[in-house]
Amino acid sequence: TSKDQALVIFVLGGPGAGKGTQCANVVRDYGFKHLSAGDLLREEQDRPGSEFGELIRSYIKEGQIVPMEVTIQLLENAMNAEISKTQNRKFLIDGFPRKMDQALKFEEAVVPSKFTLFLDCDDQTMHERLIDRGKTSGRADDNEESIKKRFRTFVEQSRPVVEHFEKEDRVVKVDATTSKEEVYKRVQEHFEKEGL
Ligand code: UP5
Ligand code: MG
């Protein structure tokens, strides 16, 4: 299929590391399509008639990872829709894969990623950002209890994915603790180096 020729970059990092923020910058400057797995799941959750609505709602609130069949299908649909609408085949996949089974399955069944951009941030900084955003985000998981669970899931299930790609030398790591502008400067350096 035409997805075979897609250029995919995974954007990973803990909850609140700044994945969405930096993806918006890259979209503006490099012509990628931004696909946030979390956003796609929240959309599906709210789609009238979705058979997965309740399942997604409870997984997100508990900071658990939705079964990969659901997420991969949503990503594939979104990629196909973008390709047929615009012919654009450059994708930033934000917040996915966050578990080993998803990583292996996606790269085997859809397309291997070019590299993973890992936004490296300490817990305290991420925690402050999420609590702050929670004042206005309306997100069901921006509260003390859900944040704790998201952090635990990240350490136990998502960090191994980053380590797996690191062993294969396919990770670009950026310090995500500084200002949004400073982080983006580092991101840009890597995109330029990769010839994007
Ligand atoms: N901010 C950002 N960068 C900053 C900086 N450098 N300095 C100061 N402030 C900065 O940023 C978070 C906040 O910090 C914002 O207010 C921002 O202005 C500020 P944002 O860019 O939104 O960070 P991001 O990393 O995108 O945080 P997000 O909360 O979206 O990360 P999560 O990984 O927790 O959320 P996601 O939406 O990816 O997933 C949510 C849930 O969906 C998961 O917990 C899981 O239950 C489910 N999910 C799956 O099951 N499977 C998947 O594949 C994906 C998600
Ligand atoms: Mg996000």
UniProtKB/TrEMBL annotation:
It comes from the Eukaryota. This is Bifunctional uridylate/adenylate kinase. It comes from Vermiconidia calcicola. Its EC number is 2.7.4.14. Keywords: Kinase, Transferase.
